[in-house]
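User: For a reading group we're discussing how well predicted structures match intuition. Take Competence/damage-inducible protein A. Before you show the prediction, I'll give you the sequence so everyone sees exactly what went in.
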Amino acid sequence: MAFGLIVVGDEILSGKRQDKHFSKVVALLAERGLQLTWAEFVGDERERIAATLRRTFAGDDIVFSCGGIGATPDDHTRQAAGAALDLPLEVHPEGRPLLEARILQAGREAGQEVDLSAPENLQRLKMVEFPAGATLIPNPYNGIPGFTIARHHFVPGFPVMAWPMIAWVLDTYYADLFHQQAHAEQSMLVYGQAEAVLVPLMEAIEARYTGVRVFSLPSVGEDGSRRHIELGVKGVPNEVAPAFAAMRAELDRAEAEYRCL
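Assistant: Thanks. Here is the predicted 3D structure of Competence/damage-inducible protein A, as structure tokens, for the group to look at:
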């Protein structure tokens, strides 16, 4: 199974806020021996979010979606998920008491009487309106849950809420996938070589060692270092070491300058 990430929010695309979810999700997966396969960023446009979800629901990937599940007019993810699955939104029977408990707690902390039937509190119920059949993702920060449906897991955009919720989903639903495939990586910095010149070597290594993938990351020295290419192999450990040794041997024959990392 592949893992994907959707980050929703105009504030990310406009640059008003910097995304933090991508790197954290990569780290949460890596801690469990898993990898992120793809990521997408989508603005607060309901039909565009729905179109993205229609496509991802049609596949087999496990998808985390961060953002847009609140109750304000610019929150569209809940509605888009329902539209993508052709399902109505319903106030979740287990989510409602959790939300009401949060409302009452906030009232007590503010020293105020709370009327759960007040218009503003009825509006807040939209935060637990999820597509029919959804299950809840507990929120350890404020108790207002996210939801899961069809291998898609929807959490708030706030990192303090989203990250422990994603960790809970992984540990609760996907522990059987942890550390199933051993992974290794070795690389070096190659100096004074054009990337195109290294392509035949890269292709030969992948053809000979089918359990690895070759990668190259050129740098023009923007950080003050010498121009170089980070060249390496990654994949199953028993093939990474010999593939890397073969790569080094070819570079030695070409008298190329390199430094192993």
